[in-house]
Design goal:
Oligomer: single chain
Structural class: mainly alpha
Number of helices: 3
Distance between the termini: 60 Å
Shape: elongated
Strand content: under 5%
Radius of gyration: 23 Å
Length: 83
C-alpha cells in the first residue's frame, strides 16, 4: 500500500532576515525551503503539545497533591545507601 501525502500551497510573509536565515539553514541541511519550514512547524507544534500536557499534569498534581506522609515513604526509598 502506497502512502500518498496531499500537500497544500500556502503563502506566508517573512521579513528579509528571516527568509535569508531560512534559506541558509535549508542549504546547510540539504533541504528545500518548504521542507525546512514544514519540519520547523511540526517541531514547534509538538513542543506546544508537550507544554499543554505538562500544564495539564501540573494542574492535576496541584489539585491532588500527595499527603506528606505519602511523600515521606518515597523519600526513604530514594535515599542513597550508607557506604
Amino acid at each position: 500500500m502506497e502512502h500518498v501525502t496531499t500537500m497544500e500551497t500556502v503563502q506566508i510573509v517573512l521579513d528579509k532576515k528571516l527568509l535569508q536565515a531560512t534559506d541558509r539553514a535549508a542549504r546547510r541541511t540539504k533541504r528545500n525551503r518548504s521542507a525546512l519550514v514544514r519540519d520547523a512547524l511540526r517541531e514547534h507544534l509538538r513542543k506546544l503539545e508537550v507544554r499543554v500536557l505538562e500544564e495539564r499534569d501540573r494542574e492535576g498534581y496541584s489539585a491532588h497533591a500527595p499527603a506528606e506522609s505519602e511523600s515521606n515513604l518515597w523519600e526513604a526509598e530514594a535515599a542513597w545507601p550508607p557506604e
